[in-house]
Write a sequence for this structure.
């Protein structure tokens, strides 16, 4: 393993950009479908309803806009929609902060420079040095499209040596959905898969014209039924901390606290760290992995 390995340029595997209008339409439909009239203080208008969740006219009433205006928006026409209207619709749909941001990105996308999309992601040298100094803490840097950009020795001992993985596959989405050993590693594999898809959805909202992201989504949709199912939910969320339960092939069960720190340098990268409660069995297991070093990575099966 070498955390200095660079994430490759995968321009050769690009595909068509995501359809922003379709993404906006499907997102609004999915959020409307999950609400019932009684959830928002409206009458159910009888038992027989042709659509799940709220009707368009009900949502428009709650948001204080005309049915025709909301219908155009739900059909993907977000042109000239104001921030105030989006705020009202977000409140009516009871969106989370992450969902509200996603709606705004879809309806009012920022101008995207093509050079920024095609440019290879780079990790600052000082950040790489920081990873190496974190000798007892598994840590890595993840970038856009769930790409794993750099990691330290402890991360390799915990997750497997990504240096042995083909550069184009150093991607959390590809690892979790396409490599069976990661199903064994994550005790709650379904939740890990959900977290990855939600993050990709957020990325798609910010960069709907990114052909690399579209190619990744297309590849996973073809190869993984679970990915297709989760992608169709249009769920978005950001998770910056929590507890992850792993079953390591060498040291067994681990309960690790993770923290994700979003860099503020405009790189759209995050530093992710894992640590154990002091004095816990997991802390002892991490010390054991640290003592084995690179030998521990050889135990993790490879695809």
């Amino acid at each position: 393993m070498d955390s200095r390995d660079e994430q490759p340029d995968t321009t050769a595997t690009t595909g068509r950009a995501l359809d922003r209008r379709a993404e906006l339409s499907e997102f609004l439909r999915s959020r409307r479908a999950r609400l019932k009239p009684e959830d928002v203080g409206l009458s159910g208008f009888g038992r027989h309803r042709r659509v799940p969740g709220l009707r368009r006219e009900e949502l428009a009433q709650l948001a204080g806009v005309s049915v025709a205006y909301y219908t155009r928006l739900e059909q993907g026409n977000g042109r000239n929609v104001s921030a105030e209207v989006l705020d009202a619709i977000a409140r009516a749909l009871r969106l989370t902060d992450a969902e509200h941001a996603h709606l705004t990105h879809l309806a009012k996308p920022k101008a995207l420079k093509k050079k920024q999309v095609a440019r290879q992601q780079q990790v600052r040298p000082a950040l790489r040095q920081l990873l190496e100094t974190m000798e007892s803490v598994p840590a890595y840097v993840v970038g856009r499209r769930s790409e794993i950009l750099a990691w330290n020795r402890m991360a390799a001992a915990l997750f497997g040596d990504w240096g042995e993985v083909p550069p184009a596959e150093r991607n959390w989405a590809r690892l979790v959905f396409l490599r069976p050993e990661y199903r064994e590693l994550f005790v709650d594999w379904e939740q890990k898969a959900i977290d990855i898809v939600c993050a990709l959805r957020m990325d798609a909202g910010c960069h709907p014209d990114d052909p690399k992201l579209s190619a990744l989504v297309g590849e996973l949709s073809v190869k993984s039924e679970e990915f297709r199912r989760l992608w169709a939910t249009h769920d978005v969320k950001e998770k910056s901390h929590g507890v992850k339960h792993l079953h390591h092939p060498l040291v067994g069960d681990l309960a690790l606290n993770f923290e994700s720190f979003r860099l503020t340098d405009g790189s759209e990268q995050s530093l992710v760290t894992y640590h154990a409660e002091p004095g816990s069995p997991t802390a002892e297991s991490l010390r054991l992995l640290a003592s084995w070093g690179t030998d521990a990575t050889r135990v993790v099966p490879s695809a």
